[in-house]
Amino acid sequence: MKLSIVIVSYNVKYYLEQCLCSVIRACYGLDAEIWVVDNASSDGSVEYIRSRFPDVHFIENQENVGFSRANNMAIRQATGEYILLLNPDTVVGENTLSGCLHFMDTHPEAGATGVAMLKDDGGFAWESRRGLPTPFTSFCKMTGLCALFPHSRRLGRYYMRYLDKNKTNQIDVISGAFCMVRRSALDKTGLLDEDFFMYGEDIDLSYRLLQCGYKNYYQPLRILHYKGESTHKSSFRYVHVFYKAMLIFFDKHYRRSNRWLAPFIQMAVIVRGVLDLCMHQKERLFGWIGRGRDREADKSYLFLGRPEAVESLCRLGLENNLKIDFVVADESNKPDGHLDPSLSVKAYDYVIYDTGAYSYEKMLYLLSLGAEHTRVRIATYSMETSKLITMNNVY
User: Fold this and answer.
1) Distance in angstroms (rounded) separating the CA atoms of residues 110 and 309
2) Which of 123, 252, 291, 298 stands 20 to 30 A from 197 (CA)?
3) How far lies 115's CA from each of 84, 224, 364, in Å?
4) 239: exposed, middle or buried (C-beta count within 10 Å: 0-12, 13-18, 19+)?
């Protein structure tokens, strides 16, 4: 087996369904297997997904065992030469997996590789490439120096913005949202550290790969990442788990050589966590009183797709009071999609792509290209599932 894809899921069955649809397209012609580990979802994920994807291997947990432990359960049973850790709230381009495999095959020094993650408005997610959170790098991040001097190789190392995002680059940390790792490297480093319930395990694994003499890389191959759709980032639990992971990493790798820094690091992490929680709660409050983001039902949508999809989506739009304009299109007659000069894309908040008319690769390319000019957000509609999916809602 060449590639084993491992997806840990928790209460995101429709996003997982979309992810699997894109992964299956990307696996065409590859010797690959897919594992889904469900962490005790309460939304009927296992029954729903198992019936739709009978060839996928499932591990059904009776409790939420965390991200690291759930991944390890599948990795131990997987047989691939390469292991891909993939989040369920992602969409993978058709060429992404084959491109990563080719790179890993031709670069034996590579322990793992990541890719360019796009936000739903096409913007580049800087988490796609990160430096190790050494005490100094963490200090720059928490004090804002990283944001003030993003292109500095010393002060801005946390997000490595000084690197060209359109070129392959050697980096320190690969995001756990998409991390293709060499199985033989895992045999040397060990699996994910299960002390990390969620967050931080990707930093720890990346660090251990470097310690073993491997190199980590970034590839300018695109995926869409809804960035934690399965996580309520405004909750106390999120802030607590995230910053606890940062402390675990520091204690594991840096405390011994920086004992005098330990109390300052702990205090800084706690203060930053409290500030982040306050900011998230402020955003939620503004949303409740109408000063935050408008409801998606109040947004305007542009749909590009086949005639039969127009008819199907029209009914769904009426049922949900969505303001949708329809254009019959596909990759052959409108290869520029929502960037076609005949369309006034600036008049729309969302562009909906018919997944039967456009490849995921094309959608992501157009989304990233359009991000330089307008921040229209992407949505997808599949006639196979009869689902319209945005970052925040499934219709």
Assistant:
1) 43
2) 123
3) 12, 10, 13
4) buried
**73 neighbors 177 (Cβ within 8 angstroms):** no
Name residues whose C-beta falls within 8 Å of residue 196's C-beta, 6 or more positions apart in sequence.
66, 67, 68, 204, 245, 248, 249
**Residues 340, 334 contacting (CB under 8 angstroms):** yes
> Residues 280-296: pLDDT tens digits?
555 555 555 554 445 66
* Whether 347 contacts 300, CB under 8 Å: yes
Q: Report whether 366 contacts 336 (CB < 8 A).
A: yes
Q: Is 89 in contact with 230 (CB distance < 8 Å)?
A: yes
- Residue 301: which of 342, 339, 338 has the closest Cα? 338
State yes or no: pLDDT of 261 exceeds 90: no
CA distance 80 to 82: 5
pLDDT at 55: 95
Four-way CATH pick for 296-389: 3.10.129.10, 3.40.50.10330, 3.40.50.2000, 3.40.50.720 = 3.40.50.10330
